[in-house]
Amino acid sequence: MKKIALTLLCGIILLSCDFRRKDKIADDGAKIAEQALKDSTTVQVIDTAYNFGSVAEGEKVEYSYRFKNTGTKPLVIVTATASCGCTVPQKPERPILPGETGFIKVVFDSKGRVGPAHKTITVTSNARPDFEQLLLTGDVTGKMKQ
Questions:
Q1: 134, exposed or middle or buried, with CB in 10 Å at 0-12, 13-18, 19+?
Q2: Contact at 8 Å (CB) between 86 and 110?
Q3: Strands 101-109, 87-90: parallel, antiparallel or unpaired by DSSP?
Q4: Which of 34, 85, 98, 112 is the most buried (most CB within 10 A)?
Q5: Domain locations along the chain
Q6: Per residue in 92-146, pLDDT tens?
Q7: CA 120, 30, 77 angle in degrees (round to 5)?
Q8: For 15-45, what is each residue's pLDDT tens digit?
Q9: CATH topology of domain 43-141
């Protein structure tokens, strides 16, 4: 019985150490993001809106919004989120250095989205003033029945 209790106690201790490590990693990530926001830069958004025209339901639309770091410090994109789960933005993983152009790729899945589409992408970064909201619009037509 003592062996079982001792084994259980050792397991609990090991698990609690792992949780602390994960908390430290999360804290470090928050500190990095906070520091990046303090080291602000400026950005020129080249493409703020894209109209994909008309697509058939079920098609996927892909577009890459361009932006340029016009400041003197690296531009860090912290998050890129869309107004709907059918639209998935992909932010750059590395900082965009001064003078460089970066891209935010967006994929819109039109499955089950017949009608006008109006999606917004919100970007959080260390740019001041804030990154402009990106817009994706178009029309999704129903599938033709044979």
A1: buried
A2: yes
A3: antiparallel
A4: 98
A5: 1-38, 43-141
A6: 999 999 999 999 999 999 999 999 999 999 999 999 999 999 999 999 998 765 4
A7: 35
A8: 555 555 545 555 665 665 565 556 789 999 9
A9: Immunoglobulin-like (2.60.40)
